Amino acid sequence: MLAPFGFNPPVKVLLALGLAALGGVIGGIIGTSIIKAFKGKQINSAVKDSEKALTAQELQ
Questions:
Q1: What is the pTM of this model?
Q2: Do residues 40 and 33 touch, judged by C-beta distance below 8 A?
Q3: Nearest to 10 by CA among 24, 1, 23, 20
Q4: By the 8 A CB rule, do 13 and 5 touch?
Q5: What is the pLDDT of residue 19?
Q6: Is the pLDDT of residue 39 over 80?
């Protein structure tokens, strides 16, 4: 991380590093919420499918 300081003003380098860290945190939060939303739907649909299968077996 020393090379950017050699060619640019320190304030700009620190600002860029801060923005990169902020973007990573925001991306992580959004990604986690998306994964949680899809996992919840998959589990719920799997439970519903298994309940339907059990009901179909009971009718036979």
A1: 0.59
A2: no
A3: 1
A4: yes
A5: 97
A6: no
